[in-house]
């Protein structure tokens, strides 16, 4: 739209906030935007912008919130973004951003980073090293390779780590246990191997930013230099869970996982786990969804699991479990046994499953 191009000019040089989400704009994001010397908030999500983010982005040195998600931007992450010292929210998700993450991409003020659903490649390297205020890091749905870097444990406020749907490998690092604020870990659909670390934490601790409620919607409230600004985050900030599904994790499920009494969802399905379902799982008092299907778990389902009053989804299908299902009392009375605790399926599928495990594990 031409009006957008024309509207940005010297006369707007004191503009602090430019919010034009889902407004049908196309073409390139005008580089004259960075002539607006005090621009703090730029939200252009849900348009049809193409080309690069902004060539002269480093001139936007007061920018605190940059949301150009859900466009058709096709470019690398500009290196100059690394020295945007005020940047707190970066949302480039749902574009065609390609190339590798800049090796020292560390605007130290970053709080929320969303780079999901792009075409990023290469390893995570040192990107975000030193972003000590980071609460959300979403790199999911890309083509990232390599391992989870050790420095991630220095991000002591990290609450939401989404690395799912990439090509990451190696072990889930023990140093994740140092992250006391971690509430939601999504590592599914990668090539992680080794054992599940016993001390994975989901404390549900309070974060530095208070989520503010507006009905069902939640927003993060930032106090910037001149104003208070609320940003509508795109994840449910109070949800807590662990999804390690669809990897090559082996060994037994550590009983310590049962101590994560805050988690609402645990998905360990589609791995190579063996041994029993720990009876400590009866302490997962908030759990609503528990998926352990498609592993090599054996023994009985611990009868104590009937204590889980919040459980709405429970699947242990395609394992080597035997014996009777837990008494159909409490929450378990509501489950459709043939669909969810499907032993019949397990036996039928045994040959197929052995092939699955042969190829998968
Ligand atoms: C930021 O980085 C860009 C490109 O890397 C550089 O041209 C610019 O001078 C840098 N700005 C500051 C303030 O360091
Ligand atoms: C997964 O990792 C193993 C080594 O641990 C490797 O042999 C295999 O090719 C990887 N698979 C994929 C899909 O990356
Ligand atoms: C668990 O993960 C698998 C694979 O990622 C997925 O297909 C399944 O729907 C998940 N289970 C639940 C209960 O969300
Ligand atoms: C559940 O937690 C309580 C208190 O933390 C502990 O005493 C008990 O042993 C746990 N139960 C199981 C089955 O681990």
TrEMBL record:
<comment type="similarity">
    <text>Belongs to the RLP family.</text>
</comment>
<protein>
    <recommendedName>
        <fullName>Leucine-rich repeat-containing N-terminal plant-type domain-containing protein</fullName>
    </recommendedName>
</protein>
<dbReference type="GO" id="GO:0005886">
    <property type="term" value="C:plasma membrane"/>
</dbReference>
<dbReference type="InterPro" id="IPR032675">
    <property type="entry name" value="LRR_dom_sf"/>
</dbReference>
<dbReference type="InterPro" id="IPR051502">
    <property type="entry name" value="RLP_Defense_Trigger"/>
</dbReference>
<keyword id="KW-0433">Leucine-rich repeat</keyword>
<keyword id="KW-0677">Repeat</keyword>
<dbReference type="Pfam" id="PF00560">
    <property type="entry name" value="LRR_1"/>
</dbReference>
<keyword id="KW-0732">Signal</keyword>
<keyword id="KW-1003">Cell membrane</keyword>
<dbReference type="Pfam" id="PF13855">
    <property type="entry name" value="LRR_8"/>
</dbReference>
<keyword id="KW-0325">Glycoprotein</keyword>
<dbReference type="InterPro" id="IPR001611">
    <property type="entry name" value="Leu-rich_rpt"/>
</dbReference>
<keyword id="KW-0472">Membrane</keyword>
